[in-house]
Design brief:
The protein is of the alpha/beta class. It has five helices and eight strands, in the order H-H-E-E-E-H-E-E-E-H-H-E-E. The chain has a single domain, classed as Alpha-Beta Complex (Nucleoside Triphosphate Pyrophosphohydrolase), CATH 3.90.79.10. It comes from Lentzea guizhouensis.
C-alpha cells in the first residue's frame, strides 16, 4: 500500500490487511465513471496574540492558509503536513480537525472537500517556498478583503471549533 497518511505506519498497514481485498465492481466500468473530488488540507496557525497566519502566494492575488491540495492517494492531514513543511520549512504536529467544508465547482476547479486542522501557535515563521512571496499574521477582520469570502467563513468556523472543542461541517463556508 503506497497511500500517504499522517497516522502510525504499522497500524495503517495492519488496517489495510484487515480490510481485505478491494470490492469487485458490480457493473464493469462503474468505478471509472464515478465523479472525482479534489481534496485539500490546511492549518489554522496563530501567533501568540491570536492572529491567523496567511501565506502570500506568488501565483494568485488572494491570501490563503498554509496547506494545499492532496496528491493522488494522500490523506488531507498528510497533505497539510507536507505543504507546511514545503511552505514554512518546519515539521508541525497538527492538532485536531476543526472544519470539513465542501466547496462547489468553480471554473476549471472541481468541487473540493477542504479540511482545516489546528496548527497551533507559531510566532515569527518565514516563507520557505519559492511559490510564496511572504507570510502575514492578520485578524480575520483584517484578512477579510484579502481572502475569498468562503475562506473567511471557513476560518470563522475553525476559530469557533477551536474554542468549543467541537469540529464543524460546512458547505461553501456555511455550517449546515
Amino acid at each position: 500500500m503506497t497511500a500517504l497518511h499522517a497516522g502510525d505506519p504499522a497500524a495503517f498497514a495492519a488496517d489495510v490487511l484487515d480490510e481485505g481485498p478491494a470490492e469487485l465492481e458490480h457493473e464493469p466500468g462503474v468505478a471509472s465513471r464515478r465523479p472525482t473530488k479534489t481534496c485539500a488540507g490546511g492549518a489554522l496557525i496563530r501567533d501568540s496574540t491570536g492572529r491567523v497566519m496567511f501565506v502570500v502566494p506568488a501565483y494568485k492575488s488572494v491570501l490563503d492558509i498554509p496547506g494545499g491540495l492532496t496528491e493522488d492517494d494522500e490523506s488531507p492531514k498528510a497533505a497539510a503536513l507536507r505543504e507546511i513543511r514545503e511552505e514554512l520549512g518546519v515539521d508541525l504536529a497538527l492538532g485536531p480537525l476543526l472544519v470539513v467544508d465542501w466547496t462547489p465547482r468553480n471554473g476549471v476547479w472541481r468541487d473540493c472537500h477542504q479540511f482545516v486542522f489546528d496548527g497551533g501557535v507559531l510566532d515569527d515563521a518565514v516563507a520557505h517556498d519559492p511559490e510564496l512571496e511572504s507570510l502575514v499574521y492578520l485578524t480575520l477582520d483584517e484578512a477579510r478583503p484579502r481572502i475569498h469570502p468562503s475562506l473567511h467563513r471557513r476560518l470563522v468556523l475553525a476559530v469557533a471549533a477551536l474554542e468549543s472543542g467541537s469540529p464543524r461541517y460546512a458547505e461553501f463556508g456555511r455550517e449546515v
